[in-house]
Amino acid sequence: MEKQVIHIEAEVNAPLQKVWDIYNSEEAITQWNQPSPDWHCPSSSNDLRVGGRFKNRMEAKDGSFGFDFEGEYTEVIPYQKIGYRIDDGRIVNISFKELNDQTVLEIDFEAEDENPLEMQKGGWQAILDSFKSYTEKTV
């Protein structure tokens, strides 16, 4: 059965190179990769190349829950596109587009079967919004 694809996006008030660098920097990922203030990302490893792997540790700050978000890169076109397969088999595609003095990030990801689509979209969008906020503060 084909999986439902969810689309999210953000316009980031920062140049493309800055957006790309912050999106892919292990150190920066630990600063922005959380859906809400009660979560954090204590560690990140990122080997950004086709066949390379990433692993981001996501944890509730109160220690009640945590998980590793990991997968393998299937496509990397610098400053344009990243594709990867999450370890559960789902596909994610990210595009980076310059628009005037902004960068538009668009993410399409296959939904999982455990949580409602709106909850998944909201969680991923919250992380992307956190990325936007963090990136715009560092410009």
From TrEMBL:
- Please give the start and end residues of each transmembrane region: none
Which residues belong to any copy of the Activator of Hsp90 ATPase homologue 1/2-like C-terminal domain?
13-135
Q: State the InterPro entries in the record.
A: ASHA1/2-like_C, START-like_dom_sf
Q: Which SUPFAM superfamilies does UniProt cross-reference here?
A: Bet v1-like (SSF55961)
Organism superkingdom: Bacteria
* CDD domains attached to this UniProt entry: SRPBCC_CalC_Aha1-like_4 (cd08897)
**Pfam families, per database record:** AHSA1 (PF08327)
* Family to which this protein belongs: Belongs to the AHA1 family.
What name has this protein been given in UniProt?
A: Uncharacterized protein YndB with AHSA1/START domain
Q: Which organism is it from?
A: Sphingobacterium alimentarium
